[in-house]
## 1
Amino acid sequence: MNSTRKTVVVVGHGMVGHRFVEALRARDEAGQWQVVILSEEKLPAYDRVGLSYYVGAWDPSALALPGNEYAGDDLVDLRLGQRGAAIDRAAKTVTSSTGEVISYDALVMATGSYAFVPPVPGHDLPECFVYRTIEDLDGIRAAAEAAGPGAHGVVVGGGLLGLEAANALRLMGMTPHVVEFAPRLMPAQIDDGGSSVLEKLVADLGLNVHTGVGTANIEQADGGLKVTLSDESVIDASLLVFSAGVRPHDAVAREAGLELGARGGILTDLSMVTSDPDIYAVGECAAIEGVCYGLVAPGYTTAEIVADRLLGGEGEFPGADMSTKLKLMGVDVASFGDAHATTEGALSVVLHDAAKGTYAKLVVSDDAQTLLGGILVGDATAYAALRPLVGRPLPADPASLISPAGAELGADALPDDAQICSCNNVDKGSICGAIAEGACDIAQVKSCTNAGTSCGGCVPMIKKLLEQSGVAMSKALCEHFEQSRAELFDIVAVTGIRTFSELIVKHGKGTGCDICKPTVASILASTSSDHILEGEQAALQDTNDHFLANLQKNGTYSVVPRMPGGEVTAEQLIVIGEVAKEFGLYVKVTGGQRIDLFGATVDQLPPIWQRLVDAGMESGHAYGKSLRTVKSCVGSTWCRYGQQDSVGMAVLLEKRYRGLRSPHKIKLAVSGCARECAEARGKDVGVIATEHGWNLYVGGNGGLTPKHAVLLAGELDDETLIKYIDRYLMFYIRTADRLQRTAPWQEALEGGMDYLKAVVCEDSLGIADDLEAAMAKHVEGYKDEWAAVLEDENKLSRFVSFVNAPDETDPTISFDDSGERKVPVLLGLPPMPVGVGSDTAAAGK
């Protein structure tokens, strides 16, 4: 035994405390220090940054940091469930919450922070929570399950953590409301322009946003909460989550007489030493020369410095990179450097594309030569390349770096000392060195350098560095599945696996995310006729599929019955009119030759659909990544120019492919002649009549990058036409990437259209029979999703506004009927025009 060994006591075992222990043990080859860790939580260190990934899987081990139990290390004594209660600086001892007294030679305070709860009347009610630990999420989960699907939850705070908390409520099946006192979301990270784009993006995805208002009062009412805002508006909710910022956990230090910062936190110098030379502070509880840093990256830096100091080093805190990157529900937000242009003479270059839903801003020096910072909303792909350039000369005109048609900033534009991973302070040279020594994928680069092991924001740049070095990149779906979507499809088809849980256990890792869960849900739906709300599948769906309806901006839903080929009977039109009148719905004829009914609340969906189903109508699947419509002209039956029965063919195709789940939405059209009244060449599959049969066009898409469909085959009879469409659609479903439309899928095929024609028309791969059989299986097994819900009490139980008061309507939903059109009113905001003209707009996509 080493008689000269010293003891360092670590108070706190979060991410930074664990990083300190790791760094010290990795460098202390002589075993100079014995480590005793006091952890208030009963779980060892876990990834608090990734706390939202706990939702859905509810598996704490998936968040566990590697090596957090120090198995086999005799020099680390981890004591879970023991808080550091008191410090005796004179005796150099710490007393734990269990009464044990532990002597130290050095003490490291890693107590982190706690969630700030504003002193609002009612803040301590049992339905009020904070969003900070796994235990907090377990409590929120229990309350959400008791409230039931669709129940409303309020998040106080619209910052980074507030949006993550709101997303967690959404993933639990709740309807989230975000209340932010500032006039914009994420006020510390982004400006007004970026926030306006972000607010629209998250509202479209199901979050109800209330900015410029505070929380005035919280009281219990009708088994839930009545939340009154400062503008006197009221939200009736089942629970409330405070995410209004954090405060340094410095109470024990305060009681021990350690000097604190002016705004709290344990005051330290740049070497992380407190006012007591034997006591250090790291992470969020440390006020470094008076400043507290609330991100994990500077926290890790402080941990490394203290480990260095205990072993005789002279490390000092170099400053902090406060860059942040958020991704939730598919929305990207990034902020880096001097994002608010506070530097004297700073200039801003802004590209705001309202149609595309993106906002990009670069802050540059007064001569436009040096990058100072930036903000990216909606599309943050440039973040990994731009952030390392902060403080450095720009390689191109700043406007071109954020313009879609401008200069692409590659990895080769960065110098070797450019910091790629800010969390772990890893530069480009270190990563390139690891690649040169044999690291041939992201996992190996992570293992060698620690880059990308924390927030993951630098992973795209690591990929670029690997590609630049000539390394073939993986097409992994996400971090939980190494396989591509096409490979997962094949696994499901071959093995017969029918649940996400079994698939991830046997072929993946972790608990899944909002990328792989809906993707696997789509694959499962494409390979069987199981209902998407059956069993575990229900938890994998996004908001629209979860309620089999399209979520609108004011929290209501739209209803779109199927009308094959645009056909509808007089009796069905009467029923639609009666339903619209009875439930007060706004009625719109869509661009896909259907009728959309807007403004239904969750609890109204079943009785509305009962009426429609009884009238012989079925779900139009406007909410799903599946067949939407088959548009048609009137064809030869009525039109003097028509050469074939386009309506009959459209009805046949729509009934054949209805409910077909796919990587993205699918639209078809049938035109009765070359005059193209049905706009068939703008659809994924377009059929145009000729004198001798049908011409088949494929790969037409609308959207931001419209594409005309390309001729696949001509002069086809009915049987051959359907056979080719069967093969084309099933080949697309099996091989496309997630959320990939048919046009980019076709363009990405090696061999292009020649290859596609060979597969579909000539059966060059020998899979034609298999593709046709798969489609036949879908056709045979199809059942209307809403009809199945109406027959199942368990599925019907989802469709209530409040589980404890099923007969009550949601008071936060209102409309303005004063004009010619009924329009939704957002709480605290003026009426907004409906302005939708297609199934795409109706679906909120």
Note: Residues 827-845 have pLDDT under 50 and may be disordered.
## 2
Amino acid sequence: MKKLLHLMGWLCLLSTSTFGQVLTVKDQVTQQPLEMVQLSGKRFDQISFTDSKGQVDIRQFKGLDSLVVRLVGYDQKILSFGQLERQGFQLYLRENNISLRTVVVSATRWQQAAKEVPQRVSTIKSKDMLLQQPQTAADMLGQAGEVFIQKSQGGGGSPMIRGFATNRVLLAVDGVRMNTAIFRSGNLQNVISLDPFATEKTEVMFGPGSVMYGSDAIGGVMNFYTLSPKFSTDASPLIKGSAAVRWSSANHEQTGHLDLSYGLKKWAFLTSATFSDYGDLTMGSNGPDGYLRKEYVRSQNGQDEVITNPDPERQVYTGYDQLNLMQKIRYRPSNNWDLQYGFHYSSTSDVPRYDRLTLYRNGRLRSAEWYYGPQVWAMQHLQATHQASNMLFDQVNIGLAHQLFEESRHNRDFGKPVRYNRFEKVNAYSANLDFEKALGQRHHLFYGLEAIYNKVNSTGTDENTSTGSSVPGPSRYPDGADWSSYAAFLTYRFKVGEKLTVLSGARYNHILLNAAFDNRFYDLPFASADINTGAVTGSAGVVYSPQPSWQLSTNFSTGFRSPNVDDIGKIFDSAPGLVVVPNPDLKPEYAYNADLGFAKTFGEMLKLDATAFYTYLQDALVRRDYTLNGQSSIEYEGELSQVQAIQNAAHARVWGVQAGIELKFPAGFGLTSRYSIQHGREELDNGQEAPLRHAAPAFGTTHLTYSRNRFKADLYAVYNGAIRYSQLAPEEQDKAYLYATDKNGNPYSPAWTTFNLKTLYQLSRHLSLSAGIENIADQRYRPYSAGIAAPGRNFVLSVRATI
């Protein structure tokens, strides 16, 4: 018996020794495991990485007195094996972004070091969202401080990048193009279809990205990478998940989220669901009275009546709700193949168009109803990655995707029975074939093929709300129109030496468009529109690092946007008294861009960076006065309206600077600040120039952060410069109802600043609490070009549980 106990003791000791040498690395604040943490010893071959559980076997490092622990975005640590042993083989790393050693995907569609990319790329990580708690993906982009967000209603969010917006910037989800043939030049809300809770990281690439992404990528590319299932690294299943609830006071937000991941060695599954209910948004108490919602229209028993708003700061008809679902399945049949299927679904309720509901005509509110129907987005995406060393590639990605977009518009004037209903549906199909090939240590190729096809269905009905009868009405777009794009591209990276990298690329894109017009409602002088055109774009950039702490870069690139179905075929009122009609005689617009940037770190304490840019847009597609059958005005939805059309009628120039500073103080304090200045000019019909509509005012953020143990806090300011009346684009000058009034009675956009506080505390390994106050001073303001006032003082509370 004694021998048996002695043997069991030795077995226990051996077991403790064996399992005790598995190191677990976690984030200091969130207490979550950190994957891909690098541990290195003295010898070249002594390198290991943590797995998806944040764990790594460190027996090979036993006895070492100097073990280096590194992860991009965190403080580096150097410890002995004995120190790790005394800490129970548990290690916590503190976040630190003062580094040039980051990794990005957007520039070439493949992972590469950011220090080898000549374009500016900004990354928003999931851990940033845990603290900031953005309500929508648009808010997530805006809170990062480098993308300007415009909103026309509660369910809004139209990004502006370097003076461009809407169909001149490109959205991508897991590398799949989201822009469709009906993306318009007016403000777009498609970005809110994405779920911040289901987003792993977001990369914003500034400047033309047409070599990699084709048409529309003129101002920049916003790439959203969603959560991916993780495989288990041992015999036991890897189970991860989180549940969160959030409440915000300004619009009485109630959000619930759940995600669950289950991983085996070859199969992995992930499910995510989020539901949000937003009430009417309350504006601040200190600011222009012109923003107040003093009255609104209510319809009861078939009668429209104007109601005095008992709380003018409550923006009646801004509430809506939204559902987001995601399911992913991943299969790894061998070490060389990785297959993943993803299903994404998003749908909103009806979303009132708030800015139109506040518009007056002859001293009375113009509209009784103006709302968007449910905005639906669904995507199925099948992706296969294969690794093999051969003459053609080292790795290939194959992507097949189908997306469904549904949207509609519904409006009825005050006191009138006819509601105009317009319905749109787009089926978008895409196929991508991307290759990566290393030619020795210094030469690298990224190349591929892309095919895209969009089918547009558009119908209209004119409904009599008094009688309940409906008759066919004109559609917004030519029903059955299609748009397709076929492209081949190549990017070449030449690492001249350790200090110098050259990145260049070219793309040929061929665009086809076919649309047949319905002349039942309008006497159009043409029956169809056809486009058959090609575009060549290119880029060339250099990154020079004279020292590891220095990065100097310059980049020259071209971009293009081919006319789509929205440009050529839509019929709609862009503003009261203006109607846009089809124009089949359009050609692509081209952008020519130059960037010059630098980044410098001073130890692990300070980082400075700045990028200057200049973009010239040729043959710009702009809205201008037009004639239809010799007439400059036609009747549209019961009103005589000036005829306009999209035309290649101008050039535009945009220039500016993006700059930032990151500073690390002792005792867990840090300071970060970002500031963007952009100016834009657009050619008018008379040859003169006027301000460019989507060139936002100077804007930025400054954050004072504190992090210690399980607690993190962020006291920050968000600020925007003013745009005077003389600096407003002509079409914005005509929208006085959106703006404040200066001393001369003219519309303008005032400067504003808000102060905000966010906190995050990890109550336990599985439970965290986030709380914050936005717009502490309760300022009443409207961001530039917005149709809705921003939230007033807003209390945010979120609880998150993880497994």
Note: The first helix runs from residue 2 to 19.
## 3
Amino acid sequence: MFSFYDVVSYMISFNALFTRLAKGTFFGFIICMPLFTVAQADSRIEQRLGAEKINKKITQPTEYLGYPLGEWHLRHDQINHYLQLLASQSSRVSLDSAGYSYEKRQQLSAVITSDDNQQRLAEILEQRSQVKYGVKQQGPLQQSPLIIWLAYSIHGDEASGAHAAVALSHYLAASDEDWVKELLDNTVILLTPTQNPDGFDRFANWANSNRGQVIITDPNHREHNQDWPGGRFNHHFADLNRDWLFLRHPASQGRVAFFHKWQPHYVGDFHEMWQDQTYFFQPGVADRVNPLTNPANQMLSNELAAYHRKALDEVKQPYFSGQMFDDFFYGKGSTYPDINGAVGILFEQASSRGQAQESPNGVVTLQNSIDNQFSTSLSSLQGAHALRKKLMTYQSDFFARNSKRTRDGKQTGRLIKAHGGNAHITELATILQQHQISFKYLNRELEDDDILFKPSNSLFIPQSQPQHDLLQALFDKRTEFKDETFYDISTWNFESALGLSISENAKPNPKYLTNNTPYVAATEQLDNASNVAFIIDWQQAAAAPMLQQLLSQGVQVKYAKKPFSLPDRSSNAKKSAVIDFTAGSLQIPLRQPNYKGNIALLVSQLATQYQVDVTAASSSHTLAGMDLGSDEFSVINPIKPLLLTGIDTNASETGQMWYYLDQTLAAPVTMVDSNRLAGIDLSGYSHIFMADGPYHLISDASARKLGKFVMDGGTIVAQKRALVWLNKRNILKSQPKTRLELNKLFSTSGMSYADKSKLNARQSIGGAIVALTLDETHPINFGLPNPLQVMKNREISFNLTSTPFIVAADYTNEPLMSGYLAKEYQRAFANTPAMIVEPKGKGHVVALTDDFLFRNIWLGSEKVYANALYFIQK
């Protein structure tokens, strides 16, 4: 007997056959019968593109592809080629680029506007560049057009938006309807079909490879269940829709540069969600809007919503607003505009994750999804155009308000020092520049709030500047919230992320400030014949990647187990001046056992490349601490790490580890899916990294291999749920507490059914910043600021009684620094272990209850992984 879904699948496939017959692809009989069609709503696009007022000389998507749009999933190169074709055929269309992805796919956007506006784009862009400085747009709307940016598919497996963008680009290029011509006279429309080219192609290839002639709607079908890591993520398994503030990835950097270049008034951010939902558009949950967002922004969101309701009501598409999604975290495509003078709107379409998939609301099809995205794209254009005066006024007022702050002449702001030295202050400066936040470097030392600020590790950010609101958002701290539910993290304070010390209301003398960094890496005396060794302070963040380069070239390097002091021989040093070096500092002996090249030249070149200060020692005798020839300096062995990957690991955290090892350290890392461990000889690896994940695919035999790996001298670095697995396999003796146990902290006495969602919110740790107290004598903590602030985003901890081994770090007595963390958790975590280094045989297990790399922006704590690599060795 056939099930209902078998019948549906059969009828879908029959319709595909019917389409081929109608095209003349097949010869034979045509049987007339009622059809269930995947493309039930094709008429929404087809009617638009086939209307009489369409320029037939402009190639339609179907003509370009040779098949109906949506019959197969498009690749990024097909979309780029089609945009290039439109630009060659239509004077309304030009192209702009936001750079390239990791895999060197170009990120093209169509710039669509009237012929006249196309001729004066340079003038329009010059106007846009002045908006932040309170310069109001002059003249009629035709001279100062509204800028609308519609951006799609930042998650690569949310493909319907990109397909809709292809159809929309043709429609705007070819339509001679009166309303379209008026729209293009008054607006410049930016269409970005794919914001994640690498993930988009990964998904397209998967979906197309697993699609048969018969369309299968069963959610269990392989087509709807991508192989790890899936198309959502970019090359390094990062969610690019969480990277607008942090800018760790080239696609994000190009996209934010594109945003500031055009400074749009309206941004439409098109996504897909779970197939069991219908269609969502903002406004989101009212009580979960970030308090820094201007209320006028939400008023405009509500006004725009009327146009989306009308569009979807006309086609009988159910939808919802005001639920589930929020406007809190500014690192997303719909919220970054809100803190930058624009109005961002999120759209979420139920996903087919292939051609068609069952859901409680009926079969979700790719074709219908494309049509819905097309409809709300049109409603975005119509709504923004109708409200253009309000949108323009909102943006002008937004920046004029900030501009007024700049006219008081005061230079009050944040003096910032990076614990990681020049590397981290350079990272901060780069991020600020990309966000167009003004800052100055220091050209001399100064002290403020008992903090010594140096040109090598400090800068000054004035409070009064056009990007004032975004600046506030980057350094925002709060622990009280109107609603305790968060769609993403509840905090992202850059002070904590980058390991900064800040004087909040500093007023430095202007003569202490400069626009260009005066810092030059200290490399004096390196070629002096009397030298016996070179010393590098490990607190410098770039010391780790420089160390890796030295090891990769066969240079012997040692690390100090304890602090020591040397005389300062630099030319500007006072007589008898001393340089104090912390534990972990590196010694490069000039008598090298294996390296035969010019060691002074190599070190000098690398120091300049990484901007690392290097001190030359003329004697093995130190002023304080152990001498350079002491056994308290240990040789660092070359590393060969292995990173476990695959479906039972958290793709985002695995990607963060890969990014750090590959992009930051430039270390060779072997990635192996966990289910392949049985066939891997582990004896040649120095470290095994395990990100968060259940690890249910690792066999008992492989677990024994991992245990033997540690016993023989290897190091496992594991975090979060990986600790649970290691404990169950007797590789880690310390016992973690998971959410199941921690939920017992919360009383449910007298709780009503309606209180359940609030309880779930309180029990969730979406992302809060907590402080750790470090054992500074432990090598895993060398070079780190103490206390150390990390992002906690999973419910896991250790019991004090279950950790008989060395506790390297505890949560502080009052751990919450910023964000939301339930009082029950704050009490439970206080003074309990957060990091344990457990010896086992000749090796160690480094156990972390948190992700010290969070989204690769947590530069203040990432050195934990370098310390594990170079200092926790056999």
Note: The first helix runs from residue 4 to 23.
## 4
Amino acid sequence: MRYLLLGPMGISGAETAPAGPRLRSLLAFLVLNAGQTVPAGRLVDALYGDEPPAGASGALQSQVSRLRKSVDIEYGPAGYRLVADPEDVDVLRFEQLAREGARIREAGDPGRAAVLLREALGLWRGPALVDVAHAPYAAAQSARLEELRAGAVEELAEAELALGGDPSELLPRLREAVAAHPLRERLRGQLMRALRRCGRAAEALAEYETARTLLAEELGADPSPELAAVHLSILRGEEARPALASRLPAQLTSFVGRDSELAALITLLGASRLVTLIGTGGTGKTRLALEAAARLPGEVCFVDLSAAPRTALAVRGALGLRDSGADDPEAALVEALRDRAVLLVLDNCEQIIQDAAALTHRLLSHCPGLRVLATSREALGITGESLRPVGPLDADAAARLFTDRAVAVRPGFALDQPKPNSLAVQAICSSLDGLPLAIELAAARLRQLPLAEIADRLDDRFRLLSRGDRTKPERHRTLRAVVEWSWSLLSDEEREFAARLTVFAGGATTEAAGRVCGAGPDAEDLLASLTDKSLVEAGAGRYRMLETIRAYASEQLPLSSGELVGAAHTAYFLELAEAADPELRSADQLRRLERLSAEHANLRAALVRATRDDRPSALRLLTALSSFWWLRGLRADVAPVAAELLAALGGDAPGALPGSLERSDFDEAYVLCVLAAGAGGAVPDADRARAARIVAERDRPFRQPFTAFLWAISAGPSAGAERPELAGADPWSRALARAGSGHLHLFHGRMEEAALDLTAALAAFRSLGERWGTATTLTGLAGVSGALGDTGSALACADEALALFEELGCWEDIADLLRERAELLRGAGQLVSARVDFERALVAARRAGTPAALAAARTALATCPPS
């Protein structure tokens, strides 16, 4: 709720201000003292003056009671307190901003001060306390606030004069302020200075004469020494200061999608004298800098360094300074900017980064009123530099940008006309990494191509997006040119490393990049350098390339090197998967799951490559990852790759594979391949029959303890997978075998035996600290309790299992368990709660993404119509 007194009284969040003058007066006084406890006696004096009527205290209590129906008022022995954040009271907000603006201007930062003071004065909507002018306290408070307002106007004028902007913009406001306060000599002096800077010295001197006459007639006094000094400086011609010759380039298109970033940048420029926008080519750094500069007060100078041999020469030209023939052009710049409050926008610093950094440091050191906003693909590296990364647009902003530019070339285009446009636009923007330049180039192709064809041809994005604005610099005309511009900034070593880095899907850790790319301990420095130059993004201990950069860099990788790096990538992630798999059945389960989840894209890419080039490694990788895919519910995602591997194996026996596997290992991998492929749809009957024979004929434990369990889940509990000889000797396998025995007893209705086995399995899994086995066993115990009619115990077991499955992210298990929980609730007559769980099961099944889970959830929900 916001309280407004600087103009007509208002309360946002309430329908109207309180009715009745006394009630409004009470509220206004409490607002003026918001957050403070006001004694009852002081409130009575504020409402009635020095002679309150009899019963005033009772009347006050009644009025407060009425107010408390619409605003938050606390009462205690010391008095009454309006509960409100000072930020929500326009009077208090104004006072705070005015004080802070004056302090900052005095400290030498007129730009930031002007921003605060404009905000402060913008809170005024008319005379203060106008609706309670009759109240005894109103005249004094109104006069106080008007005095503060006049002071804020003076401070703002002083800040704007220091910034050196166009003084003609100041004149109307200063004339209005002088007319309202004709005896305020500081305001009169500011008006005189503004007139002189506009070249109107005679009018400035006339203002002095008007002030001198008025002071003599009204006060019998002479002008103050300060006003007399302004008069003298004008007579001497000292107040003139020509504005900079430079202007910001005019923009021909709308600014889309970075409003919050723009606001943050403007705030940052108020607090820091050097801000550098960094990011890869095409992210819109220049446009963001121009938009920010256009919204800031004072003089601005824009300098394009993309083709400049030296920064100082480019800045001198932009400032309109003559070539003095001096040996040190930087010294001339220092003299030109020493006493100015100027924002210098240095665009495209990356080409001459060292030179740009050196000049920026020198200018900032000697010109206290100077601020610099730089754009670059790497930081200037100067002490005090504030970095502001400019990344891709988010999905909504990218779609808005595409639509905005598409309408310009095809007026009938709209995001929802026809409806499929929405999905196609989102797909295009996602494929182009949300890069504004790439999106604009793609939208421009609508002149020649339909939307669907643009989306289909983005695999060859550099050829598709090869036409741009002829008036743009060469580096911004095509998508390839943008990336080549960044590529040209790299050393040979960085280029080779970056090209090899494209083998990674979904990013890489430093250790992985060093081993796979052959960089060893140098990987850390190379990654840092590529990050500094905006070719790589860093975050959460990982490094990744935008897909557009990756596509270009991969073209620079020779075929022979690509094969070697691909083999190293497969080997690295096979080693990672095989090392992590046993830990998935330990107390370290969650951490290992997170590690593998972070590398899921790389693991999948390695499996795809190995399926094509190295089937023994593909089978080993599939075996090692089977439990991870199950626990994370990723089987539907890898099912197409598993199906491709299954088809590639055909009738191969182990001996037919290069670097052949042992028969036992091949057979097990084959079974797991059938199971993984089946998650995405039907598997050929011959393959499923062959897998069934392998399981039936097996006379020793599987290497992967999950294999027997997964086969039992797929083929049913009577498929022979419960045989003791298939269980391993390790504690986890023994616990799983005991749990499997319990589930089998439950399936056949032997509740006592089921409870005995499941309780023993639960104790074993708990001792190992393993969550999935614990949750699966609890699910069985929930079934036992439910069959015995103990709904409370069944729900307790189900709830604990749900919490564990949610920790693990096992969405298919969650969907199954929610259906079972819903059946328990339905059996107990809790139909509304049952319906809720059936609906939750459908949500979980959608997240799991497997056809079987979705079908089961939809069928179950259909059996429980809304009550």
Note: Residues 468-477 have pLDDT under 50 and may be disordered.
